[in-house]
Design goal:
The complex is a heterodimer.
Chain A lengths: L2 E3 L3 E5 L4 E8 L6 E6 L6 E6 L3 E5 L2 E6 L4 E6 L8 E8 L9 E3 L3 E6 L1
Parallel strand pairs in A: 2-11
Antiparallel strand pairs in A: 1-3, 3-8, 4-5, 4-9, 6-7, 7-8, 9-10, 9-11
Chain B lengths: L3 E3 L3 E4 L5 E7 L5 E8 L3 E8 L6 E2 L6 E7 L2 E6 L8 E8 L9 E2 L3 E5 L1
Parallel strand pairs in B: 2-11
Antiparallel strand pairs in B: 1-3, 3-8, 4-5, 4-9, 5-6, 7-8, 9-10, 9-11
The chains are: A mainly beta, B mainly beta.
Chain lengths: 113, 114
């Protein structure tokens, strides 16, 4: 089975750094994704990790530890526009739809002035 | 720019109606997916398709069916709409080979059943 956990809500201050954690237990592992979703809009791709370590992309970084079933998304120099939900998703074993993702419940981040 | 297009952004239907949600992608992707998204429950997979005329049940297929007659189009059908099917419906597509960006999502259809 698949189980992906992330906090429901987080609050942070503009200009600060915030870390959003995600733990997973899945049958097989072929990559972990982070998506950003603004209210009423579609999720958009942020990052992808398949090997252990940190992937940095501008203000956003994502970390993966496969042995611990753990990832985090790090947002630096927070801006008001970063207020959104952040979805952690895991690609498990290959199946007929070899690219199928299982999503966590999402973390709603509120950035305050 | 790659696109997944959902035919309606907002939809209001009556209980018992048959409802069609349409999704079209222009990226020649093999895989297409229908999710519903509800507060506190995240994205839940309804159905997916990995090829034309092929379909597989997801986690919550009850009350839904799908159709994929052409590669670019994947339709979700609510056979007899009920109020508990009020939700945001998201369509997504992907290539069948390993890709590092996962899915491309449509903009969603917010369905209200009254």
């Amino acid at each position: 089975g698949q189980n992906i956990d992330q906090p429901t809500e987080m609050t942070a201050t503009e200009g600060a750094i915030v870390q959003i954690n995600c733990t997973y237990q899945t049958s097989g592992f072929n990559g972990l994704f982070w998506y950003q979703q603004h209210a009423g809009e579609a999720p958009t791709f942020l990052s992808y990790n398949v090997l252990d370590g940190l992937e940095e992309k501008g203000r956003f970084s994502s970390f993966l530890s496969r042995s611990k079933g753990y990832s985090y998304l790090l947002l630096k120099e927070l801006q008001m526009k970063d207020s959104a939900s952040y979805l952690c998703a895991v690609r498990g074993e290959n199946n007929n739809a070899g690219n199928m993702l299982t999503f966590g419940g999402g973390t709603r981040l509120m950035v305050k002035p | 720019d790659v696109k997944v297009t959902q035919s309606s952004r907002y939809l209001v239907k009556r209980t018992g109606e048959k409802v069609f949600l349409e999704c079209v992608q222009d990226m020649d992707h093999e895989n297409m997916f229908w999710y519903r998204q509800d507060p506190g429950l995240g994205l839940r997979l309804i159905y997916f398709s990995y090829d034309v005329k092929m379909k597989e049940k997801g986690d919550i297929p009850e009350g839904y069916s799908v159709s994929r007659e052409k590669k670019e189009r994947f339709s979700l059908i609510l056979e007899s709409a009920s109020t508990n099917q009020t939700s945001m419906y998201l369509c997504a597509s992907s290539l069948s080979i390993t890709e590092d960006y996962g899915y491309t999502f449509g903009s969603g259809t917010r369905l209200t059943v009254v």
